[in-house]
Structure formats: structure tokens, C-alpha cells
């Protein structure tokens, strides 16, 4: 049974949806607006959210953004009467896990919900099963994490963005004596400065303007389990002092409250900057650093995990082929060679994004033409032309006319000067090029617009508008 939050401004549809969900044994909470949905998630986090797109007030997509900022791992399934591909692209960019079209077909709706159940079951599987990799550097870090999971010591995960620090934190929780308790993940970089104390420690009703009800903070939600503070280096010195006091006294006081609340929380934190160096220059409290870093584990970057690119790529192909329901199996040797030649500045997260798109474009298996053309990230990458052949494109080019057997290419420009990979920005920048390339390739098959619209499940008017936008042939009926 799941705790489902159903959000729609149509009361008749909402009641019908509630009945259907309860018939399957799910617990249901309803909300008739985006504002009500955000408040409901703040009060008690559900297991999954069913969210309508078209609502008065804040739209469904804006609500989705707020929900994913509030709880980054919260599964949200979008419901809409629109078939426009732009809506789907925007929803996935903002963090939706699935997209169902109204009027809802029970099998599709429950299939989407069952996928959420399967994903949650996967996170409750044995800790090491959720982490893919056999390279010596990766196994050493994971073995240390599992070994240190049992004793109640604070662990700092240090390393580059995209190396899987949250997965390591979950592995630590699942391998600990607290595995039956809650695991609460908080991205400190997403907390508004004026609300951080309320978010972490909670507040009492009337504590400040807008505090219309008591709020339970992240620390209390994690009581009896593990609290994961990601990007902890983003906390201000003022909040760092409060956090230090909580760790020392094992109690919290809600904002506006005077009664201390006892805590039984194991803290795992993460940073993609050197916190010890930050402490040395006064940007991070030294006393808090030593509290957080009773031990330090550093998940290695993907470039240092020999052999794991192949393992991870195959894992992601299998995952997304199953999720998207496409008959893609495996990855060719040529495509794998290109992946292994790349330096992966965005680490595993970047590889996952590349494979996710490649699976959508592939037919039987992932081939080189389904992968982006990367620029070399450094002079050393240019030192061995054979290893980089096919990866370096001096300037991105617009998709040209395709032959019947040609695959769609996506060219993504990872900027060498970037400090890290911004996945949302990357997908946003590439989405129009992807759409252009797909439409261009489909048009080369000689299909009529009516048949093409039917195959792509889009309204013919919408298709015609997009073809005109990209300068493609709009003369075919």
C-alpha cells in the first residue's frame, strides 16, 4: 500500500480517482490546488504524487518544481489532457517520473504507480545491490561505507558532483541497525536562507509571519533513522552554529518553541568541496567539521573507476529500456569505446543522462550514432586522437537531411570551463535539438503528416506547428 497524494482542481474527477486508488488498497490524500499540494507534502510526505497540469493559481508544472525542491526524491506522476510533447519534456526536466494522459486508463495509471513501487522496493534491497561497480577504487569506498554503517558515527561523504554520494548514504542507512527507520535526504543548497532553521528544526504555530501551523523539521522526521545533509557546505555560519549545538546536545528546539525535543538521529553529510580547506580559511566552522567528519569516505570519480563505465552503461540501458517499454538490449562495442574514451566530468549522473536519451533513440541496441559528440575537456584528452576519434566536434551542427538508414544524432556541448554538470540546464538546452532531430528523421521516412501525428501521438495541428517552427516540409497532408 502506498500513501498517494492526488492533486486536481476538478472535484468530480478527484473523487473518482480517490475511489479507484482506494479500491487498490492505497491510502489517499487529495488537494485541489498547487498551494494545497505543497502544504500537504510539508505536513506529511506521501509515497507518490498524482499531479494535474492545468490548475488555477500556480500551474501543475510550477507545483512540480516546488515539490521537487521540497523533496528531491519524491515521485511525481503528471496527469494531463494534453498530448503536446512540450508538456512531457518540460515535466521530465522538472523531475516527473512518469506522464499519463486523461482520460485515465486504469492499466496505464496503475502501471505507472507499480513502477514507483518497484523503484522503492529496489531502494530497500540489500545495500550494495543498488550500487553498480566492481573497480578496486569503487569497491574499497563501498566496503568501507558498509563496514562503518553499523557503529553510530557521523560520516562525511566527500567528492565530485555526480559520484553517487546519496546512494552511498542510502547504502550506509540500509546496512546500519537503523535500516527499519526513516531515511531523510535534504539538499542544503535548495533551502531558502530565511527558512533554513524552520526546515531543519521545525517551528511552532505563530513563530513568524506565515507560520499558520506547527511544522515538523527534517531532524524530527528522521528520528530513529538517518538524516542525510547533502551540500552541507552551503549552510551559513549562523546555521552551522545551530547544527553544532544539536549534534552536541542531541536535542532540538523548534523555532518559536521553548521545549527541547530529544533526538535519536544518525547524521550522514556530503559536500563536493573540501570542507577542511573551507574550515582553514574560515568559511566553515572547524568544530562542526570534526563533528561531521568522524570519518570521511570519498566515492571515486568515474574516470578513476576502470571497467565501471561498461557495467554502468549496460545497467542503465536495461533500466531505461524496461522503464520506457522499448526493445533495446545492450550496447555495441563501438559505442562502448566512445563512452570509455570520454572523461565524464559529470560522473555517473552524466553517464546516466546520456544512456537515458540513447535508449530513446535506439532501435535494437545503443550504437555510436545515438551518443553525443563531446568536445575534449582538456589538452590531455587531445593527446591520443585515436581514443577521442568521433568524440570531438569543434562546433555543434544543426541536424541535416538524413538518409533512410541514418540514426538521429544528438550533439551536447559540455563546456570545458564548467565547474560541474548542471543536468537540468543540459537537458533544457538540448530538448529543442532533440525534438528537431526526431521530427527530421521521421519526415525522411516519407510518412504523411496525418500518419506521423498518429504514430507520435500528437495533435496534427501541434505537429504542423512544430514542423513549420523547424523549417521542415509542411506540404504533406
The proportion of residues in beta strands is 5-15%
Low-confidence stretches: 121-127, 376-421
Q: What would CATH call the homologous superfamily of the largest domain?
A: P-loop containing nucleotide triphosphate hydrolases
Please name the CATH topology of the largest domain.
Rossmann fold
The count of helical stretches stands at 20
The outline comes out as: globular
Class derived from helix and strand content: alpha/beta
- Largest sheet: spatial strand order: 2-1-3-4-5
Proper CATH architecture of the largest domain: 3-Layer(aba) Sandwich
Quick description:
With 477 residues, the chain is an alpha/beta fold.
Fill in the keyword field for this structure.
single chain; 477 residues; alpha/beta; Rossmann fold; Helicase, Ruva Protein, domain 3; 3 domains; five-stranded parallel sheet; globular
Description:
The N and C termini lie far apart (49 Å). α2 packs parallel to α3. β9 and β10 form a beta hairpin. This protein is globular. Strands 2-1-3-4-5 form a 5-stranded parallel β-sheet, with helices on both faces. It is an alpha/beta fold and 477 residues long. About 11% of the residues have low confidence. The chain is built from 20 helices and 12 strands. The protein folds into 3 domains: 121 residues, Rossmann fold; 173 residues, P-loop containing nucleotide triphosphate hydrolases (Rossmann fold, 3-Layer(aba) Sandwich), CATH 3.40.50; 143 residues, Helicase, Ruva Protein, domain 3 (Orthogonal Bundle).
Amino acid at each position: 500500500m502506498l500513501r498517494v497524494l492526488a492533486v486536481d482542481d476538478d472535484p468530480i474527477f478527484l473523487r473518482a480517482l480517490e475511489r479507484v486508488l482506494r479500491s487498490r488498497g492505497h491510502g489517499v490524500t487529495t488537494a485541489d490546488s498547487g498551494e494545497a499540494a505543497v502544504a500537504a507534502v510539508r505536513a506529511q510526505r506521501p509515497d507518490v504524487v498524482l499531479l494535474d497540469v492545468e490548475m488555477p493559481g500556480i500551474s501543475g508544472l510550477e507545483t512540480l518544481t516546488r515539490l521537487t525542491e521540497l523533496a528531491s526524491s519524491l515521485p511525481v506522476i503528471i496527469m494531463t489532457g494534453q498530448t503536446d510533447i512540450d508538456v512531457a519534456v518540460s515535466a521530465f526536466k522538472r523531475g516527473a517520473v512518469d506522464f499519463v494522459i486523461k482520460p485515465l486508463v486504469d492499466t496505464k495509471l496503475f502501471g505507472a504507480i507499480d513502477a514507483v513501487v518497484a523503484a522503492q522496493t529496489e531502494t530497500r534491497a540489500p545495500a550494495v545491490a543498488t550500487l553498480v561497480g566492481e573497480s578496486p577504487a569503487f569497491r574499497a569506498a563501498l566496503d568501507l561505507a558498509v563496514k562503518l554503517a553499523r557503529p553510530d558515527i557521523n560520516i562525511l561523504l566527500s567528492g565530485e558532483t555526480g559520484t553517487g554520494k546519496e546512494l552511498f548514504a542510502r547504502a550506509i542507512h540500509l546496512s546500519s541497525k537503523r535500516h527499519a527507520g526513516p531515511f531523510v535526504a535534504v539538499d542544503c543548497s535548495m533551502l531558502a536562507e530565511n527558512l533554513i532553521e524552520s526546515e531543519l528544526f521545525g517551528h511552532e504555530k505563530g513563530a513568524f509571519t506565515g507560520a499558520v501551523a506547527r511544522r515538523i523539521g527534517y531532524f524530527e522526521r528522521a528520528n530513529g533513522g538517518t538524516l542525510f545533509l547533502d551540500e552541507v557546505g552551503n549552510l551559513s555560519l549562523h546555521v552551522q552554529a545551530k547544527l553544532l549545538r544539536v549534534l552536541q546536545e542531541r536535542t532540538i528546539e523548534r523555532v518559536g518553541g521553548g521545549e527541547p525535543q530529544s533526538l535519536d538521529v544518525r547524521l550522514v553529510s556530503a559536500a563536493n568541496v573540501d570542507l577542511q580547506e573551507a574550515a582553514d580559511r574560515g568559511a566553515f566552522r572547524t568544530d562542526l567539521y570534526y563533528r561531521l567528519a568522524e570519518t570521511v569516505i570519498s566515492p571515486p570519480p568515474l574516470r578513476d573507476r576502470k571497467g565501471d563505465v561498461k557495467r554502468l552503461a549496460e545497467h542503465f540501458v536495461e533500466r531505461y529500456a524496461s522503464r520506457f517499454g522499448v526493445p533495446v538490449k545492450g550496447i555495441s562495442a563501438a559505442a562502448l569505446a566512445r563512452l570509455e574514451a570520454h572523461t565524464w566530468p559529470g560522473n555517473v549522473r552524466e553517464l546516466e543522462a546520456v544512456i537515458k536519451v540513447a535508449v530513446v533513440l535506439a532501435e535494437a541496441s545503443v550504437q555510436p550514432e545515438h551518443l553525443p559528440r563531446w568536445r575534449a575537456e582538456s589538452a590531455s584528452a587531445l593527446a591520443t586522437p585515436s581514443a577521442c576519434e568521433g568524440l570531438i566536434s569543434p562546433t555543434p551542427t544543426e541536424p541535416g537531411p538524413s538518409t533512410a538508414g541514418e540514426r538521429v544524432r544528438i550533439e551536447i556541448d559540455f563546456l570545458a570551463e564548467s565547474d560541474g554538470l548542471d543536468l537540468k540546464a543540459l537537458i533544457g538546452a538540448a530538448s529543442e535539438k532533440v525534438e528537431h532531430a526526431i521530427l527530421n528523421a521521421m519526415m525522411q521516412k516519407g510518412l504523411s503528416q496525418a500518419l506521423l501525428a498518429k504514430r507520435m501521438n500528437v495533435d496534427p495541428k501541434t505537429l504542423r506547428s512544430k514542423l513549420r517552427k523547424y523549417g521542415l516540409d509542411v506540404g504533406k497532408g
